[in-house]
Design brief:
The chain is built from 18 helices and 30 strands. By secondary structure, the chain is an alpha/beta fold. Among the domains are: 246 residues, Rossmann fold (3-Layer(aba) Sandwich), CATH 3.40.50.980; 153 residues, ANL, C-terminal domain (GMP Synthetase, Chain A, domain 3, 2-Layer Sandwich), CATH 3.30.300. α2 packs antiparallel against α3 and α7 packs across α8. The two termini are 47 Å apart.
Length: 623
């Protein structure tokens, strides 16, 4: 069985001989000259969609770059952007890069302490905020800020020792001088600082150069086969790499982007925008699948049976079935309406950032919505592996992308070497060297290659813990079994150093009410029949797990985990340490209750029928 995969070098210039861009600003300039009148992006306005051509896009960036320079931003300075995903985010991002500045995107919902820590550590010279609310944080902080831009703020009452103005004010004075042009940055200049998600501890900064980002753009463009007729949506956080890289790939390929104001309402936008490409986190696809299945379950018996038959039929080998005469009738009857919900011309949906159940991937593929899974890490700007339209294996994360040399270590740990791999974690005046082995970066993830070169992830070193009896508990693997319960929003497994597994469970309240009655109030413990049904569903979901991996007690919390509470990262990953600390009192209560049961139990380590129901009545404080 192969343990290593290596691919050949590729650059942006290889895709088109006329493209000799070595930096991101040069790439945009090249694209604007190649397709000056084609729509580059569309943004919502009070009068509908505002369309901007590639030529107009490039001009906006040049003008904004001059405005930023006029307010003191220079090559090598750091600009922090802390606003929600929007066209303004992208315009300011590219304008700063045009000057040779370094862009750092951070989640606008970060706590005050995390936010100020990053500002101080990066010694940033400019800051982009959504409004004036965070400005009070700087009243006693010594910074090198030259200016602050607020998207919706009021600059008339500024008492801080640096200018504060709105985005509209910046735009109004952003006219490019007729006799002054800006030099392009160099290929090896830093372009961005990306902070790790912080799922296992404090976030760390990583620097990437223009050259590294262009290599990533080339690798992604090649495997996704994106062209100038494609349309996608910018809705994921631009503070993370996933959405930002897709937006940059659109510059390289000429695809059009729609910026939407309300990401939570994405499904409402799809029939209007009619994208050909969609990029989303696993939880989005899982929720859509659950919604479709709920609607089907409420249909007639004939519809339910027909849908299940069609799902099974097309799930076996859709590409071959589509060639058979008459088979399209079944497809149109059961699946066409679902595809129209996604706009009707979707050719590829991609996901990453967290594990996705194989069943979910097979569900969408059977319907004719090609869902593919990729694998990426913050420490490598080039995505590690990706399933594509041509090469796909559900359950795997695909094959390595160009320039990635991936090796499986003796302990099953995934190692990577290549030009996209970072050189160290950023600190104010130094670089912290990461863990390398013979030139390979040690990712901390675990996996294996099959005989055809597809990579399978089996966990993460930090997500595989041991019980007090020495048995290994792959947390993500266990959680995936319980996350399939339709009304369950998230499950956090606890078991490190403990005798058995317990869980914190959050629920989708709307779906929960559909199942158990619209009059349920989540401030009070539900009726016994509801608790008994939840208990049975938990027991059923764990049947395929080993006995020691099954949940023995669980707490149903009042509220779902939230980004703003510090429980989730901006890409919706669980922050385990934070969650365990915030709900420590409930966790201890579950284990105490299990200990009490042990005293009168002839089989103290068998809890098959003892999934206890806890509602969050202990009022655990979020810290």
């Amino acid at each position: 069985m192969p343990t290593s995969r290596k691919t050949m070098n590729k650059t942006v210039g290889d895709m088109d001989g006329t493209n000799s861009a070595t930096t991101i600003p040069e790439l945009l300039t090249w694209r604007s000259k190649l397709l000056p009148d084609k729509i580059a992006y569309s943004a919502e306005s009070t009068s509908g969609w505002l369309n901007v051509t590639w030529s107009e896009y490039a001009t906006k960036i040049e003008n904004l770059a001059h405005a930023l320079k006029g307010n003191g931003l220079r090559k090598g300075d750091v600009m922090i952007i802390a606003i929600p995903t929007s066209a303004e985010w992208e315009l300011l991002h590219l304008a700063a890069l045009r000057l040779g500045a370094i862009v750092l995107g951070i989640d606008p919902s970060l706590s005050k302490e995390q936010f100020l820590s990053i500002v101080a550590e990066t010694n940033c010279q400019s800051l982009i905020l959504i409004d004036n609310q965070r400005l009070t944080n700087f009243s006693k902080l010594s910074t090198n800020l030259q200016f602050v831009v607020t998207i919706n703020g009021d600059s008339s009452r500024n008492t801080l020792p640096f200018p504060v103005f709105s985005f509209n004010q910046l735009s109004s004075c952003s006219k490019m001088p007729s006799n002054q042009s800006l030099p392009f940055p160099d290929a090896q200049d830093p372009a961005t600082i990306v902070y790790t998600s912080g799922t296992t501890g404090q976030p760390k900064g990583i620097i990437y150069t223009h050259n590294q980002i262009l290599q990533a753009i080339a690798a992604i463009s090649e495997v996704l086969s994106i062209g100038e007729n494609d349309v996608t949506i910018s809705w994921l956080p631009l503070s993370a790499l996933f959405q930002r890289m897709i937006n940059l790939v659109s510059i390289s390929t000429g695809a059009s982007i729609f910026f939407i104001k309300e990401p939570a309402k994405l499904m409402q936008y799809l029939p209007t925008i009619r994208p050909t490409l969609l990029f989303g986190v696993p939880r989005f696809y899982e929720k859509v699948q659950q919604q479709i299945e709920r609607e089907i379950s409420g249909s007639s018996l004939l519809t339910r049976l027909g849908f299940c038959f069609a799902l099974d039929l097309f799930g076996k080998n859709r590409p071959q079935l589509e060639r058979l005469p008459g088979i399209s009738i079944i497809d149109r009857l059961f699946f066409q309406r679902i595809r129209l919900l996604f706009g009707g011309r979707m050719k590829l949906m991609l996901t990453g950032s967290a594990p996705l159940e194989k069943r979910c991937i097979e569900f969408f593929n059977a319907i004719g919505l090609n869902l593919r899974e990729a694998y990426a890490i913050s420490e490598n700007i080039i995505p590690m592996t990706m399933n594509t339209l041509k090469e796909n294996r559900a359950g795997s994360v695909g094959k390595p992308l160009v320039n990635n040399e991936i090796h499986i270590g003796e302990n099953g740990e995934i190692l990577v070497r290549g030009p996209g791999v970072f050189q160290g974690y950023y600190h104010k005046n130094s670089i912290e060297k990461p863990s390398f082995s013979d030139g390979f970066y040690i990712t901390g993830d675990l996996g294996f290659f099959d005989k055809d070169g597809f990579l399978y992830l089996t966990g993460r070193n930090s997500d595989v813990v041991k019980s007090s009896t020495g048995q290994k508990l792959p947390l993500n693997y266990i959680e995936a079994h319980y996350n399939g319960i339709p009304y369950v929003d998230s499950v956090v497994i606890i078991g490190s150093g403990r005798k058995c597994v317990v869980a914190l469970v959050t629920i989708n309240q709307d779906v929960f009410r559909e199942y158990f009655g619209q009059n349920l109030v989540f401030d009070y413990e539900p009726p016994d029949k509801v608790k008994e049904k939840v208990k049975k569903d938990i027991l059923s979901a764990g049947q395929d797990l080993a006995e020691f991996q099954r949940i023995k007690s669980f707490a149903v919390l009042k509220q779902p985990f939230r980004v703003e509470a510090g429980e989730l990262t901006s890409s919706l990953k669980l922050r385990r340490r934070f969650i365990e600390s915030a709900y420590q009192s409930i966790i201890e209560a579950m284990y105490r209750r299990l200990d009490e049961l042990d005293e009168n139990d002839k089989q103290p380590h068998k809890f098959t029928d003892k999934c206890l129901y806890f509602l969050e009545s202990l009022e655990a404080e979020r810290v």
